[in-house]
Write a structure and sequence with these properties.
single chain; 274 residues; alpha/beta; Rossmann fold; 2 domains; six-stranded parallel β-sheet; globular
Amino acid sequence: MTEKKERPIGIFDSGVGGLTVAREVMRNIPGERIVYFGDTARVPYGNKSKETILRYSRQIVRFLQTQEVKAIVVACNTASAFALEEIRHELDVPIIGVVKPGAKTACETTKNNRIGVIGTKGTIASGLYTEFIRKIKPDAQVIGVACPLFVPLVEESMLKDPVTMEMARRYLSALKDRRIDTLILGCTHYPLLRAVIGEIMGADVTLVNPAYETARGLKKLLEEEELRSARPAKEGETGHRFFVSDAAESFRDFANSILPIDIEKAQKINIEEY
């Protein structure tokens, strides 16, 4: 059996969005190997019930446990909001979500205490970002806006399409009116639209990328739990494994367009078996 430190980190998401978290982990914690699962057959999660998200998340966690992971990252804001706390008590490995790190950074960043959050319908309706922000900054004004079309636009690689720009203008107009100075990109797909969102919101609004903050949080967690890999990071080395529930080729092509490495294949599995 592999020594615990040298086991991989499990990362899962509803689709390709969590690759933004995988990218930040590769950049910020080189030497660690990743097992990534994208639930491409059942994306998006943002319009599904808490019960369904919990069932999906449990299936994925069971699969990741078969891969002998040493820690799990829930790289999906909706699953972080609806499933993380319940799953945490069922695991014997540490687990981290993307909501707390993003909320903490937003609180440290804001000057006028007006924080915007964009996310899926599920994430915004859960109120979890507001809850975490208010624990740190009780007087903060949190304005949440659901942007349900952003996920399918990213999944279709329409990152710079005029349709995407038009939808972004519509979604973000309410936040501009409220004079926020900090905006949390509350879905792992959204950092891929950072240029569009930044152009519309303007230079006075700081964009918080929870993917980056989660990678930093994971690094700290691994060090505290004495789980950091001792392997030296080698240039061009992969050792990462990618799994999906559908559309393996299009997933691989998308992954190769945003990751700092090239992946040869993503393996399709039947997640319903777990």
